[in-house]
Amino acid sequence: MKKVRLLLPLLALPLLLLLLRLPAALSVDAGQLANGAAFEPAGCWFGVPLTRRVECGFVTTRGAQGQGRHRLPVVIVRDSWFGNDTSPVVFIQGGPGGAAGLDAVTMEWWLEDIERYDWGRDFVLYDQRGTGLAQPSLACPEVLEGIRRDLQLVLRPDEENARYLGYLRACHDRLRGEGHRLDDYSTAANSDDLADIMHLVQPGSWTLYAASYGTRVALETERRHPQQVRDMVLDSVYPHDKDGFLSWPAILARGVDRVLEHGGRESLKPVLAELMQRLDVEPLRLPVTRYSGEAYTPVLTGTRLYMALFGATYSSDMIGHIAPVISDLAAGGSRSKALTEVVTFAVELELDTTFSEPVFHSVSCREDQVRRESDYLAEVETHARASPQLRRMLLDHSPADVCAFWESGRAPAGFREPVVTGKPVLLLGGELDAITPVQWAREMHEYLPQSRLVVVPGGGHAVTVTDVCTMALARDFLADPAAALPMQCNGDG
Known about the structure:
The chain is of the alpha/beta class. Helix content is 46%, strand content 13%. The strands form 3 sheets. It has a 10-stranded mixed sheet, with helices on both faces. Helix 5 (187-201) crosses helix 6. The relative contact order is 0.12.
């Protein structure tokens, strides 16, 4: 027995060395596709827990005719130390222009969430071209700094919009002067990039997990590269047949009303209209503390109040504050917790340094029907006729004003045709999502034969961010798309 005890450390040493070598032996090698897209392994730029196996690298995009090359960061969070998944899950961020959060701080959150969600699969993250850590980066410091100053000034909506357009034009001119191609950014290009990432990391069919605009990229990937798609989890769907320009008046006009109606607080609608008028005459300075700890004092005008309340619909956690904010302000309160949280959240949305305005406008101006301005005006009259301030806001801040100088090409014929597939698709939506209304998911559910629809009651935009229950549903769906979904989230299956 004594000899056996002595041999144990000697036997354990080779085993330990084998385990240390194994991840390296399984890691993705440098490689290149026939179209020129290439993967280059790299050390991770964030802390990796000893208990996790994570690989990092960069994909250089294919050499498409008339397009520049882009270097996209890729993070692969392995589910196992002993093998690679043959069908990973890839997360596709929204926007367009949103970063996936691959910076050192946000990756800590990602790693915790991936472990908590426990997909049982390798999980892949990447930044789309122009966003986050992608190179070249398409950023607009001119716009951010301008908005940062303007939010602390008393400005009429038309003045504020004129200044914004000036900042954006300066950004546009600088980017063009630096040689950036604004027609490099499109849903089709994002789809091709994703297909190349999948082929380079693990050839085969993958699960596409997407949120908001990312769902459009996922659907386009199914259309252009169906052999690489196994199934999809689509949160807050943005179908091809829905137009960001023409749907904007209805989305903006109905967002806050829908929340008030849902809570039985319709009586607050005229109260909000009166508050907007009052704040336009007597704006309110409201000191807040930003999430970074910075002290900041935005000025709350009627228009900004409305946009702050509308912005709250992005978050299921913030939606519940909308009615209390209106009630508190109507009662003369200006320091309530609800108001402070909603305004702070709005400031964070406006001054989000991770969001790329140029990517957003490049994709939107290319793919939205901005030349149908008469139809846009008709939509404004239909949905905002009863609110002079909202009507003025929609007219003063028409997306067509940006696209008049932000030329980034046009989407090809057939782009707006709905993508139809017989593959399993889980559709997730928030009942009160103002940005991508749940009705869009209901309509998609009707024409996707193998889709399941789960609506989160009282949920806002991107429900998987704030509703962990939806992740449990997604796991069950991916394990067996035909199985009955549990009803903890009150899904309407």
